[in-house]
């Protein structure tokens, strides 16, 4: 559902309207068409192609599989995830960490729950790349959660001054923990980009629209907007070019 003000255009992606699946060890929720879930009105938002909210049981794993020409960002919310790929990239990421992989000309990787007993929850996010067929690459980094208290902490960006993980796209990923009653401004890093805002936890209002846990909103035609916290909330802002 789209709505428009004089300038800002928005599209709601309510948590209850997401696609779902149950593979036993994996229980995903799909914001966009993926795997066996297809919704012609939810194929992509600009350069943002995939956002999966995954629950992985203890011992669960994605076996070795290929990708090419996609920027893949993983944000663990709880638990720990183990990565391995055929370029030699490897590591374990947990809440507070961010992982990025440029599949470029082709890469094979596996992702596994690092625990045999505890579950993992994470966001798996795919963006179309700016330049195709680059050399595949992998990186991960830990971020101090204090750096996102009532402000945006940029965790993925092509801009060196952001001190974030590099991405092959004019896109930025930012996280914030906002306290009840606080007002938080978002300003685009790239003129003309859209923003896909996800409420990880809590409740906020954007342009008079109330969003609760796991709700999201796509925002276009503005380089700045305000977010009002209705309670303590965790937010993810994915800023992306809108033209494919």
Amount of beta strand:
over 45%
CATH structural fold name: Jelly Rolls
Work out the helicity level. Answer: under 10%
Cα Rg: 17 Å
**How many domain modules?**
1
Decide which structural class fits the backbone: mainly beta
Order of helices and strands: EEEEEEEEEEEEEEEEEEEEEE
Explain briefly what this protein structure is:
0% of the residues lie in helices and 52% in strands. By secondary structure, the chain is mainly beta.
Task: Describe what this molecule looks like in 3D.
With 244 residues, the chain is mainly β. It has a single domain (2-240), classed as Sandwich (Jelly Rolls). 0% of the residues lie in helices and 52% in strands. The protein has no helices and 22 strands. The strands form four sheets. Strands 1-2-20-17-22-15-14 form a seven-stranded antiparallel sheet, with no helix packed on it. A hairpin with a 2-residue loop joins β18 and β19. The model has no long low-confidence stretch (mean pLDDT 95).
Give descriptors for this structure:
244 residues; globular; Jelly Rolls; 52% strand; 7-stranded antiparallel sheet
Protein topology:
Elements: E1 2-4, E2 9-13, E3 19-20, E4 26-30, E5 48-56, E6 61-67, E7 71-78, E8 80-85, E9 90-94, E10 97-102, E11 107-113, E12 120-127, E13 137-142, E14 153-156, E15 172-178, E16 183-187, E17 194-201, E18 204-206, E19 209-211, E20 216-220, E21 224-229, E22 233-240
